[in-house]
Design a protein that fits this description.
Elements: H1 3-16, H2 29-37, H3 44-57, H4 61-70, H5 91-112
Helix pairs in contact: 1-3, 1-5, 2-5
Length: 113
């Protein structure tokens, strides 16, 4: 799996699909946050591996693989070349903030129930 796609997909989950982390995976988001804190922004592969391992440990690994393979183009239908590239600066910090925000939101939701 391509690291940038793993990271982007997981970021999308954090922002748009909080239900993926229910009923219990959200409780371990702080562990993921700690693991991401050890990552270097310039090393996308270790960040993607950290996310993939965390997902696998929380029953989300198959969902991640399915989402990534669903978005993958068929080899016979290659995408047009896109020469524009938007670099995400501070990817580790951005991911950690998203993890922390989603954790706090889900924690509050659980307490309110």
């Amino acid at each position: 799996m391509e690291p940038t796609k793993v990271i982007a997909e997981f970021q999308d989950w954090l922002q748009n699909y909080p239900e993926y982390f229910l009923p219990t995976a959200w409780q371990d988001l702080p562990q993921l946050d700690e693991s991401l804190a050890e990552s270097d922004d310039e090393e996308l592969f270790p960040i993607a591996m950290t996310i993939s391992k965390w997902c696998a440990q929380h029953g989300l690994g198959e969902k991640l693989r399915e989402k990534l393979s669903k978005n993958r183009k068929d080899i016979d239908d290659p995408p047009a070349m896109d020469n524009t590239f938007t670099e995400i600066e501070n990817i580790t910090q951005t991911l950690r903030q998203s993890v922390q925000i989603r954790y706090e939101q889900l924690k509050k939701k659980a307490q309110d129930q």
